[in-house]
Amino acid sequence: MTEVPVMLVEDDPDIRSMLSQLLELEGYAVKAWADGEEALAALRAGERPFLILLDLMMPKMDGWQFRSAQMAQADLVAIPVVVLSGDVREADPTSLRADGYLKKPIDLEVLLEVVRRFDPG
Predict the structure, then answer these.
(1) Over 70: is that where the pLDDT of 20 sits?
(2) CA dihedral 96, 62, 37, 41 (to 10 degrees)
(3) Per-residue pLDDT tens over the stretch 105-119
(4) 56: closest CA among 44, 43, 39?
(5) 5 or 92: whose pLDDT is higher?
(6) Number of neighbours of residue 50 by Cβ within 10 angstroms
(7) CA distances for 29 relative to 21, 25, 26, angstroms
(8) Would 1 be classed as within a structural domain?
């Protein structure tokens, strides 16, 4: 495992807490944000996760807006993004240029497999 964190962008506090705890129990550092605006500000301030787990439906700045802003910034575009969504129709990984897609409710074993795949450590 690596000290480089996973960034979790999820507005539901219960899901955010549960996924953070699971990842931390697996040895990952986790930085969790409640919306895309906060997460983008952290990235612009220098936060560099090895993976972003991105919910789509959020207040202030949703997942589509976050992804658009991330892709427009050269130093952030290479950070892999896996979309988390409850609706298959709303998450087209191709249009979002996402590196993966997990449908809610999230299968925790599948989530861990995906995180391990991107883990640089």
Answers:
(1) yes
(2) -10
(3) 999 999 999 999 999
(4) 39
(5) 5
(6) 19
(7) 10, 9, 9
(8) no
Rounded CA separation 27/2 (Å): 8
Sheet (strand 6-9) strand order: 30-33, 6-9, 51-55, 81-85, 100-103
Specify whether the CB–CB gap between 58 and 38 falls below 8 A: no
| Range of the structural domain that residue 91 is part of | 6-118
Give a yes or no: residue 83 inside a domain. yes
What distance in Å separates the CA atoms of residue 20 and residue 25, rounded to the nearest whole number?
9
- pTM for this structure? 0.93
Q: Looking at the 3D structure of the chain, how many domains does it have?
A: 1
When pLDDT is averaged across residues 82-110 and rounded to a whole number, the result is 81
**Which pLDDT score is estimated for 121?**
84
**Domain CATH number, residue 37:** 3.40.50.2300
Could you tell me the two tokens for 118? 């991107």
